[in-house]
Design goal:
Elements: E1 5-9, H1 22-32, H2 39-56, E2 63-66, H3 70-77, H4 83-103, E3 107-112, H5 116-124, E4 130-137, E5 140-145, H6 147-156, E6 160-163, H7 176-187, E7 198-199, E8 206-207, H8 210-219, H9 227-236, E9 241-244, H10 249-253, E10 263-266, H11 267-271
Parallel strand pairs: 1-2, 1-9, 2-7, 9-10
Antiparallel strand pairs: 3-5, 3-6, 4-5, 7-8
Helix pairs in contact: 1-4, 2-3, 2-4, 4-7, 7-8
Length: 272
């Protein structure tokens, strides 16, 4: 049976929005207090709030997926991760990654128009700490690491280059300590088998068991985001429409997939 509608959740680099859901606001206050809401929590909360609005309108996801941080919202939407645990884990994820970025300064650069193989080959032969971190579309790959090493890679490949407004070198070995700490936190959390299929951002696999979700959340901080594999999996499952519970970045990425026939929309369009 085809899974017609996918709801997808964005990650870092997305602006968090207002939260209207009372239960969600109360959970945020318990873990973040009355001060400024941590950035990653604001993104997670906005995504969950949007997903709940979709549900209230009777729009039900057949399958979900998340890009990086968005996998936490996807795990919640799939019925695997509880709201309280999700808020707490994202608060800790934000803290740990911020601390790691302070200890190991770096950044991320999007390369648009060059093939993934060209970028990967340049990374493999580069000196210094740099990795291919996000395989977003057939024509967009993000590199992560030391500024000098990234500049060297960017200079060796074609396409346009755009430095991302990101706090650190995410999905790289610079996040090693943060990943170890998150592993310990995830081990303490009770996860359920997903009620609806969730697609792994690491390899595009269907996550059917609680332990699969736990491993995906554990490994994502160091592993590349393979969004190309996610989109290809959604297409193979028969998905016809992708609704993004975010600002539209993931929906726009679909334009780069010439062989994939899926409609991409932003949730606010569906809810209006």
């Amino acid at each position: 049976m085809a899974l017609r509608l996918a709801v997808v959740f964005p990650g870092q680099g997305t602006a968090g929005g207002e939260v209207s859901d009372r239960e969600l606001r109360e959970a945020i206050q318990r873990y973040a207090g009355d001060g400024e809401v941590p950035y990653q929590l604001s993104v997670f909360a906005s995504s969950v709030d949007t997903f709940r609005k979709l549900e209230k309108k009777g729009i039900e996801a057949d399958v979900v997926a998340g890009h990086s941080l968005g996998e936490y919202a996807a795990a919640y939407a799939a019925g695997s991760l509880g709201l309280e645990d999700g808020v707490r884990l994202v608060v800790e994820r934000d803290r740990l990654m911020t601390e790691a970025s302070t200890r190991n300064p770096g950044g991320m650069t999007a390369i648009i128009g060059a093939g993934a193989r060209e970028v990967a080959d340049a990374v493999d032969s580069a000196e210094g700490a740099v990795v291919a971190a996000n395989f977003n579309t057939p024509r967009q790959t993000v590199i992560s690491g030391e500024m000098g090493a990234m500049e060297a890679v960017a200079g060796r490949v074609g396409g346009k280059k755009r430095k991302l407004d990101i706090a650190g070198a995410f999905h790289s070995p610079f996040m090693q300590e943060a990943a170890v700490a998150m592993d310990a936190l995830l081990a303490e959390v009770h996860l359920k088998d997903p009620e609806i299929p969730m697609i792994s951002g690491i390899e595009g696999a269907v996550l059917a068991k609680a332990d699969d979700v736990r491993l995906a959340l554990r490994d994502q901080m160091l592993s590349p985001v393979r969004w190309v594999a996610v989109v290809e999996r959604l297409a193979a499952l028969g998905v016809e429409e992708v609704v993004e519970a975010g600002g539209g970045t993931l929906a726009r990425m679909l334009r780069d997939f010439e062989d994939v026939e899926m409609r991409g929309r932003v949730a606010k369009e569906v809810l209006s």
